[in-house]
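Please go through the protein record below and see whether the fold suits the sequence. Record follows.
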Amino acid sequence: MLAVLVDRPMRRQSETLLLLPLLPIFFLGLFWMMPLAFLGFAGLGVLGILMVCVGLSDGLHANSDFNRQVIVHGYARRSERAVHASNLHSANRFATVMKAIGTGLIVVGLFGFFNFR
């Protein structure tokens, strides 16, 4: 049976050194997310619109990559075509999920905005 000593940390290095380089990234992200919190349900709708835009751009980017692969490399072996088609389907599934989540956020935002003034 293995015994784990509780008083000894798993790492010897402190993670506080990561705080300094990551702090500006945190503050930049905080600045852009703060207005969404102050907007309430309207902010939720704006976040939903942004997620729909992400889904649309990801789907278009996946189709563009697939078309570029077909045009540049032309006729490929069956296994290579299957890999590219699988990548396309995977990216399109992710894009569909993002669009559905964004649409849901828009609906919740509109519902909350008009019903809970």
